[in-house]
Amino acid sequence: MNALSDKLKKWGHWIVFLILEVASLVLLFRFNAYQGSVWTTQANEVVGRVLEGRQRLIAYSQLGEANRKLTEMNLQLQSELDVVRHRLAALEHDSSATERAVASQLAGIHRIPAQVVSNSIRERENYITINRGMADGVQNEMGVVCGTGVVGIVYKAGQHYSLVLPVLNSRSSISCRLHDTEYFGYMKWNGGSPLLAFIDDIPRHAKIKVGEMVETSGFSSVFPAGIFVGKVRRILNSDDGLSYKLEIGLSTDFARLRNVSVIKGNPQMPTEPKDEEEKEE
Amino acid sequence: MIFVLFKRLFQVLVLAALQVLILNQIHLFGYATPMPYVLFLVWLPLNSNRVGNLLWAFLLGLIIDVFSNTPGEASASMTLAALVQWPLLHASAPKDCVEDMVPTYASMGRWNHTRYIIILTLAHHALFFLLESFSFFHYRDLLISFAASLALSVVLMLTFETLRHGK
Q1: CA–CA separation, A201 and A203 (whole Å)
Q2: pLDDT mean by block of 10 residues, chain A; 281 residues
Q3: Which of B26, B33, B69, B143 best tests the A interface by mutation, with the highest count of A CBs <10 A?
């Protein structure tokens, strides 16, 4: 008995050390595995609350800027509305069919508004935390967008908070296409500037112009087709030299992300032929 | 006993809050993020309980991990640094010091104390960035990040310790 307690005294700290290290590594690998608990992430309840409080403070100090932007947007929308009203008046006689089509397409996209409570852009693996979770209908692998375009995909949904894998994460991969030529590829980000991302594997024969718009392809069920992603900034050679690699200037300013919405797929509208949706990427 | 418990808890919460709310936002030149929470280990007295230290360090690391989406990285590194802390302090403490000495410039001498801080921080940062390489491996960036963060953390910690103990 004495010998045992002596041994424990001598080796106890090693045992504790090993247990703690194993626990840490389990946490690390469970997080990196795709499915896992949200307990050890920012989607955790308590953590979400603390971060939300901090974000409120920061947002409060930036209200002036937000106000200015809203006014600007209001003006722009008003002028657009005028144009649309004029057009509508001109088309009034046979617009019912188009109207119905537009309304049904809009109805097909349920969106859950959410606010960013934590955000990073300078890491190699950036994550965004939003204040909506499973209780609000958010599920893993739902798309997240904001007013200026694509933000990312829900990575781990907690009860009231969710962790989003934004475009600015080396594990993110979003199916995109070029607006005019309709060539498509997966958009990746590999560190560096938060304003730039890349699309690989664009064939050599593609005639691409700098400045061309990039939007989501709609090939996956995560994003509907046609959501703005960014613009082509430069056309580079891919690493193997067999195809083009496009440098994309992202439309979303991740450094100032505040209001986003989660795209909730439409349960009552099954895939229509024009949607070209595929379940898996 | 209960006083020591609360003091440690307080230190853990303050260091974690400092790291999570402020320092995690700092990326000097895009590479260096200071992680001075290793100070928790520096503040441990000579006669502290070895197993207890490991547990405290793990807890502090875990809190920081959860808040910064790096599960396991800080906790594993803090645990390693805590393992190193005990023998290191016993080796570098002066022979004639009191039993419950708290390591400061005054009690250990400037050079001994500085070296103590550097080695502890090195142990922590080395494992931290090694684990970081599992999720993002970019050999050159990682090395720069490691060296820059290490330097920044050590400078911050030395500055803080100097201010705290005067002169």
Answers
A1: 6
A2: 73 85 82 60 74 80 78 77 76 52 51 85 83 88 83 88 89 86 86 85 84 83 81 85 86 83 63 42 39
A3: B69
